Amino acid sequence: MSDQAAPQAKLVCRNLWKLFGARAPEALDRLGSEVSARDLAEAGLVAAVRSVDLAVQPGEVFVIMGLSGSGKSTLVRLMSRLIEPTSGEVLLDGQNLLAISKSEMTRIRRHRMGMVFQHFALLPHLSVLDNVAFPLAVQGLNRAERLKRASAMVELVGLAGREDAMPRQLSGGQQQRVGIARSLAVEPELWFLDEPFSALDPLIRREMQDELMRLQQVLKKTIVFITHDFDEAIRLADRIAIMKDGEIVQCDTPEQVVLNPATDYVREFSRAVPRAKVMRVTSAMEPGAGGADLAEVAGSATVAEAAPAFLQGAEALQVTGPDGAKLGVLRRDAVIRLMLEG
């Protein structure tokens, strides 16, 4: 499936492939881009990523999800060129990352990209503050400047007062906050998070999701987030790309993925998700303005987020746009019907 790149896209992948096996580039040239999995297997090749086209917009939380082995982690490593693709292009602000030298790519990763992985990988002999400051030392910043910036990041992720603690003295959630602060210390333009919360207990995981959403409200980063958890994806994403066998089978908003699944595979993925959790109030409202006494709800809210107002006795809510314009009326009966359908 193709996702056409807008001119202002921050990160673009074009016809991106990653094959494992002997003489993979030559084999792909010989077989062509419409090659089947069977043909690849007969050629002794395994396709980890197949013909991926996507565009990530500035300030967007772009979630890539799929089951284990779907190719999502390989794809994010291709985007950052931690591994080399077999074929295709990766563009950052229009610059083809595959056409530059390895030393220039290292500079881009150090100065323009941040990365957080499932395993915290904190340096056990360094304090919280020194762990956060470590990538700044690699950049060559003087000690005073890097400690100043690291202190600001520690405070930003809610660990002020724990600067001198060692990693072993922190909980799992606190350790992941240190990992997040460390990746943010370089002030990245593009932030890769590869299943960063999957090793955490459910309660701490939700707390870290809340923290990520809070940070995104402040920082407005361009984020590529990898997960296999659909609930996590719909909670965090502006758009979701769902992968299967190395291909993107649907790329859309959480609402459209749930309401209009492109394939049976996507339908099965989203089957257990209540529609009210992803459906925006604008999709359930009646057009027009209501009475002047109606309480208001933002058009960007989900039906589930608006529902508590009806428990408090409201019969209808005025749906408003970002500029305060009256977009429509969300009625109690519509919400009840949707919740029961879900």
Label this structure with key terms.
342 residues; alpha/beta; 16 helices; 14 strands
Can you give me a brief rundown of this structure?
The protein has 342 residues and is an alpha/beta fold. The protein has 16 helices and 14 strands.
Tell me the number of helical segments per DSSP (H or I, 4 or more residues long).
Answer: 16
Helix fraction by DSSP (H/I, runs of at least 4):
25-40%
Strand-pairing-aware structural class: alpha/beta
Largest sheet: 6 strands, mixed
Sheet-strand content, in percent, reads 15-25%
Note the overall shape: globular
Mean pLDDT: 88
Task: Summarize the structure in words.
The chain has 342 residues and is α/β, with parallel strands linked by helices. It has 16 helices and 14 strands. Strands 6-7-8-3-9-10 form a six-stranded mixed β-sheet, with helices on both faces. A hairpin with a 2-residue loop joins strand 4 and strand 5.
What is the strand and helix layout of this fold?
Blueprint: E1 11-20, H1 24-31, H2 37-42, E2 46-56, E3 61-65, H3 72-79, E4 87-92, E5 95-96, H4 102-112, E6 113-117, H5 128-139, H6 143-156, H7 172-184, E7 190-194, H8 202-219, E8 222-227, H9 230-236, E9 239-244, E10 247-252, H10 254-259, H11 264-270, H12 275-278, H13 281-284, E11 286-287, E12 296-298, H14 303-306, H15 308-311, E13 316-320, E14 326-331, H16 332-341
Parallel strand pairs: 3-8, 3-9, 6-7, 7-8, 12-13
Antiparallel strand pairs: 1-2, 1-4, 4-5, 9-10, 11-14, 13-14
Helix pairs in contact: 5-6, 5-7, 6-7, 7-8
